[in-house]
Amino acid sequence: MEKLLQDNSIGFALLDENLHLLHFSELFVLFATPGRRPQPGQLVTDCYLEVFGLEEELSKLSKTPAASLMLSCIHRTLLESGTHYLDFKFVALPPHTHEQPKLLFTVSDET
């Protein structure tokens, strides 16, 4: 079953039951690519983020229930897999579109 989370400052996250597909707001995509904003439609692969750093940054951006639930889902996935890293692949969209950027992630053992 899919869960739809709505939040004004984070946008929304769409999680499938296996947590394989996530839709995030542009804010999250910009954070996920520090120092190199992706062009609309560009596929950015192998962007590794340490989950504890991600949590710290997101806590600065928002204290909302949606952000907390999104992070707890990511934490659970990482704890079950025994790694602290995710392999992010996403496509950026132009600003002010009604579609949300798509972000797919898989657990990675690389550091």
Radius of gyration, whole Å: 13 Å
Please tell me what the overall shape is. Answer: globular
Average pLDDT reading: 42
Q: Please provide the ordered H/E string of secondary-structure elements.
A: EEEHEHHEE
Structural class: alpha+beta
As laid out across the biggest beta sheet, the strand order is 3-6-5-4
Cα separation of the termini: 32 Å
What's the tally of helices? 3
| Range of strand content | 25-35%
Share of helix, binned: 25-40%
Number of domains: 1
How many β strands by DSSP? 6
Task: List the topology elements.
Elements: E1 3-7, E2 11-15, E3 21-23, H1 26-32, E4 43-50, H2 51-61, H3 65-81, E5 85-91, E6 102-108
Antiparallel strand pairs: 1-2, 3-6, 4-5, 5-6
Helix pairs in contact: 2-3
Give a quick summary of the entry:
Helix content is 32%, strand content 32%. It has helices at residues 26-32, 51-61, 65-81; strands at 3-7, 11-15, 21-23, 43-50, 85-91, 102-108.
